[in-house]
Design goal:
Blueprint: H1 5-8, H2 12-17, H3 22-25, H4 27-32, H5 38-51, H6 71-84, E1 106-111, E2 121-123, E3 128-130, H7 133-156, H8 162-169, E4 174-179, H9 181-201
Parallel strand pairs: 1-4
Antiparallel strand pairs: 2-3
Helix pairs in contact: 7-8
Length: 202
């Protein structure tokens, strides 16, 4: 009864940055106000049974719903569980607790609409600006240290190899959430075409 219409659409970026309205930012409030649908329960079970080695969940899960179908809500749920593990009150309504990590799990959660291949995303706390999908993933997973591993790839726009990504993950269970990725790919392609045109003109 207190959720206004302007707050109805959840924004993943605000949750990641810690600036979302409390109904989304607080894991306790979020799950207290979330109905445990079959869809969200299945997603949580698939993701965390794989991460904890207690099941054979798929390494890649594609969420398909119509507009307003709850994809962002599901992604925020994964974010909170990765950050707080079993400590969220009432989480057993959504999944058996023994499937969840005891401590926090590495996670990067990115909305493609927020990425900016041309101007980058500036992180004021550290002064780091990320320009690519993998640069932002690295920064979210391990801050400045993670970004420095992939900085050359981020600046050049050339995707990193498997070995450097393995160094970034450090052998730890990791969740990477990608939302609206097509929006980013269109922007990145536009920048690549522009770079080719400049090269041709020279």
């Amino acid at each position: 009864g207190e959720l206004s219409l302007e707050l109805f659409a959840a924004k993943l970026r605000l949750v990641v940055e810690g600036n979302a309205p409390q109904v989304y930012q607080s894991a306790n409030l979020f799950f207290a106000n979330t109905f445990p649908t079959d869809g969200i329960k299945t997603l949580i079970r698939e993701v965390f049974s794989r991460l904890t080695g207690k099941g054979s969940g798929s390494p890649v899960i594609r969420l398909e719903t119509s507009f307003g179908g709850g994809k962002t809500h599901d992604e925020i749920a994964l974010w909170h569980i990765c950050k707080q593990g079993r400590s969220i009150p009432g989480i057993d309504r959504f999944t058996p607790v023994d499937l969840l990590p005891i401590t926090s799990t590495q996670i990067a959660a990115i909305d493609g609409r927020d990425l900016d291949p041309e101007n980058g995303i500036y992180h004021p706390d550290t002064g780091v600006t990320t320009y690519t999908l993998w640069g932002e993933i690295a920064y979210q997973i391990d801050g400045i240290n993670g970004y420095q591993l992939l900085q050359a790839s981020d600046r050049s726009g050339v995707s990193p190899g498997t070995s450097v990504l393995e160094r970034l993950m450090k052998g730890k269970p990791t969740v990477i959430v990608l939302d609206e990725i097509a929006r980013y790919l269109v922007a990145a392609k536009g920048k690549a075409i522009q770079a080719v045109s400049y090269t041709h003109l020279r």
